[in-house]
Amino acid sequence: MGEHDAHRQRVYERFFNEGLAHFAEHEALEFLLYLSRARGDTNGLAHRLIDRFGSLSLVLDAPIEELQQVSGVGKTTAVVLKFIPQMCGYYLNNRVDERIVLDSPEKVAEYLMPKFFGKTTECLCMVPMDDKRRPMGCIFLSEGIVNAAPVSIAQIVKEAVRTHASTVLIAHNHPRGLPLPSSDDIGTTIAISRALDVVNIWLTDHLIIADNDYCSMRRHYPNAFISDSL
Q1: How many whole angstroms separate alpha carbon 154 and alpha carbon 143?
Q2: How many domains does the chain divide into?
Q3: Among residues 185, 225, 190, which one has the least CA distance to residue 204?
Q4: Does 14 share its domain with 110?
Q5: Which residues pair with 129 in a beta bridge?
Q6: Cα(144)–Cα(127) distance, rounded to whole angstroms?
Q7: In the chain, which ranges are E strands?
């Protein structure tokens, strides 16, 4: 067994015994890189990636083109690195009970935050619900740049009608920002609420999500909504 093989075996045994809790971030990344590099040293590559982007999370958030500019990162390694945050989001989303009733901002946040996990640009989604506030799905309508996503009110109304929704909630994220609504966010919420009201569908809330924090516009800006309660 070569030096690198012996080192890998020790890392595997450490993970089996301890999990990742006590791994430094470069050690966790080194271990992850085993998936794309069957043999050889990945410690140096882990250090180069963290030195280039600043942290493990920033490595995983980096565009695939920038990852491939780092020496030692080929297409397979870049794909593995981009796969991880999306798989984590898929896992968290899959754990949510689809029978949940979204009748409070806290429940809405618990349901929606995993769906934005790993997204690095501003995205807008809508959740059509039945008359008991049970979600019928989560539809991502647009994705923009880091601080903006286009909004089509007509598309929101169209999807709400198509899914036979009784109520709808919408959400968008502020990547690397604070969950504070802009004047445009407030104006858009008013416009969406009015447009849905025309087809007898109620907008229950508009959540702004930023990492592990959120703002319920229903709670903080109730005048933006036609209906008077969540």
Answers
A1: 16
A2: 2
A3: 225
A4: no
A5: 135, 167
A6: 19
A7: 123-129, 139-143, 167-173, 202-210, 213-216
User: What is the chain's pLDDT, residue by residue, as a tens digit (230 residues)?
Assistant: 566 677 788 888 988 888 888 899 999 999 899 888 877 788 899 999 999 999 999 999 899 999 999 999 999 999 999 999 889 888 877 665 657 899 999 999 999 998 888 888 889 999 999 888 989 889 998 876 544 556 789 999 999 999 999 999 999 999 878 898 989 899 999 999 999 999 999 999 999 999 889 999 999 999 999 865 55
Task: Give the CA distances from residue 28 to residues 37, 52, 69, 205, in Å, rounded to whole numbers and listed in that order.
Answer: 15, 16, 21, 38
Q: Where are the alpha helices (DSSP H) in 96-152?
A: 105-112
CATH no. for residue 120?
3.40.140.10
Q: Which residues pair with 139 in a beta bridge?
A: 126
Q: Which residue among 57, 92, 127 closes a domain?
A: 92
Domain of residue 9, CATH code = 1.10.150.20
Give the Cα separation of 118 and 196 in Å (integer): 30
CA dist 222 to 104, 198, 227, 228, Å?
14, 19, 9, 7
Q: Which domain holds residue 20?
A: 3-92
> 61: which 2 tokens?
């958030």
Question: Which of 92, 108, 130 is at the close of a domain?
Answer: 92
Let me know whether 138 and 218 are in one domain: yes
